[in-house]
Design a protein that fits this description.
Elements (H helix, E strand, L loop, with lengths): L1 H35 L8 H24 L1 H21 L3 H19 L2 H8 L3 H33 L2 H5 L1 H15 L14 H20 L9 H21 L7 H4 L2 H31 L4 H8 L1 H21 L1 H20 L7 H27 L8 H34 L4 H29 L18
Length: 471
């Protein structure tokens, strides 16, 4: 048990680094723009370059984990992430920083794609697995909370390069620990199927898809989002055709043909669209409507991730062990919708303690039980030889959902604000509260899917099941 716990700590530490990096960078963007001479539109590529590589490579990385051994792919991804962090920290030009961020995204994808699969193999028993997923969710929430606060402190005190350079010593320690404690499972070997043309099609297709989502409604794009979106759909369809004809497909169509995999990950997309969109919209609401600065915004956010962490560690596993992931997911989604509806009712001049704090606590309670349960359901029934692919698929759904939710809710907020006719803060308030209502709509759709379409999690033959998710 101590070795498994140490392995889980290594996996969660890498996930924490990834989440910390994304939130810290968001806080430091104004300083980066000023010091490296980014244009107002160009600075978005500090984020987009990372997203393009991360989302585009997740499926390929997951398959490589099955073929080469997940621990090898994890350590290779961690190595690249650390080296790219050093490049970012030493960058003296906008081009170098964007290149470093792209490599960071690639390293993060290779490490993150195999994490869920490794966790479910380390902890196959349902109660242990629920506990492990709760700890994993806790690190995600903790990273989101720390990122806003630590990002503001480090950037103000030591400058923006430190937010990247701090990854180097931490990453080296995690790599050394991982080499010692991670289970060295043997993969199937490259001969079992690495479809290079298919890998190129899906990587470029997903990258273009994320680009189209992040640039929707943005002025000054070199290529319209509709064009890149159409190209992304074309490439993804070509990938599916390729998988049906390839001798050794990257992802067998029998896997994509599983209704459970598609239905459960549709819920994943909606949950993460809501979570990422909520984080983005609420940050803008607190800053632009309530007048908080960057550090104050981070502190205002703290109740949500703190509650998420406490629920993930001490409540979610017990609930899932007793009732199963599906009932817990349904209850979590209903609570999540309630929290968003409360946020949509916040007045133009709110009191933080009276108007904001209660819904933020409700959101923390909801997310704390929703994310572990939906991840367990998405991984349900994956055989040992498929966990990398299924993990990569689920991570791709998470990233696509996050990018989609952020872009759509931002567009909704901007459109509603401009159409409201209210002056100043009133217009912003109208936009953001409408975005909260739309996010609640995402949750309602996810709730319907969970109730109607996720009734019986699949089970494999005895001795082969990785996730024993009970209804």
């Amino acid at each position: 048990m101590p070795r498994r716990a140490a392995a889980l700590a290594v996996l969660c530490a890498m996930s924490l680094m990834i989440v910390l990096d994304s939130t810290i960078v968001a806080v430091a963007l104004p300083d980066i723009q000023r010091e490296l001479g980014f244009s107002p539109a160009g600075v978005s590529w500090v984020v987009n370059a990372y997203l393009l590589a991360f989302a585009g490579l997740l499926l390929l990385a997951g398959r490589l984990g099955d073929l080469l051994g997940a621990w090898r792919v994890f350590l290779a991804g961690l190595s690249l992430f650390v080296a790219a962090s050093l490049l970012c920290g030493l960058a003296t030009s906008a081009g170098l920083l964007i290149a470093g961020r792209f490599l960071q995204g690639a390293g993060g994808a290779f490490a993150a794609a195999v994490v869920l699969g490794m966790i479910v193999r380390l902890f196959p028993e349902p109660r242990e697995q629920a506990r492990a997923m709760g700890i994993y969710s806790f690190t995600q929430a903790g990273g989101a909370a720390l990122g806003f606060v630590v990002g503001g402190v480090l950037t103000d005190a030591l400058g923006w390069p430190v937010i990247f350079l701090i990854n180097v010593p931490i990453g080296v320690l995690v790599w050394l620990a991982g080499r010692k404690v991670l289970p060295r499972e043997q993969g199937l070997g490259l001969g079992a199927g690495l479809d290079t043309p298919g890998a190129v099609l899906i990587t470029v297709g997903l990258s273009l898809g994320v680009y189209a989502i992040t640039r929707t409604g943005s002025p000054g794009a070199l290529v319209p989002a509709s064009v890149t979106g159409a190209a992304a759909v074309t490439l993804i369809l070509a990938f599916l055709v390729r998988q049906g004809t390839a001798r050794r497909p990257l992802i067998p169509l029998r896997l994509l043909g599983r209704g459970w995999l598609l239905r459960s990950n549709a819920v994943v997309v909606l949950v993460f669209a809501t979570g990422m969109g909520f984080q983005f919209v609420n940050a803008l609401f607190v800053q632009q409507v309530m007048g908080y600065d960057a550090l104050g915004t981070g502190l205002a956010f703290l109740p949500t991730p703190v509650v998420i962490g406490l629920v993930s560690l001490f409540v979610a596993a017990r609930l899932t062990g007793r009732f199963g992931p599906r009932p817990v997911l349904i209850g979590g989604l209903a609570t999540l919708a309630a929290g968003l509806l409360l946020l949509a009712r916040v007045p133009v001049h709110p009191s933080y303690a009276i108007d904001m704090l209660p819904p933020l606590i409700v959101m923390g309670l909801a997310i704390g039980v929703t994310i572990p349960s939906v991840i367990m359901l998405a991984m349900a029934g994956a055989a040992p030889a498929e966990t990398g692919m299924v993990s990569g698929f689920s991570n791709t759904a998470q990233q696509a959902g996050g990018a989609l939710g952020l872009s759509l809710l931002a567009a909704v907020a901007a459109t509603r604000a401009s159409a409201s006719g209210a002056p100043g803060v009133g217009a912003l308030h109208a936009g953001y509260t409408t975005a909260f209502l739309v996010a609640a709509g995402f949750v309602v759709v996810a709730l319907v899917l969970a109730v109607v379409l996720l009734r019986r999690p699949p089970r494999l033959a005895a001795g082969e099941s990785v996730v024993l998710a009970s209804a």
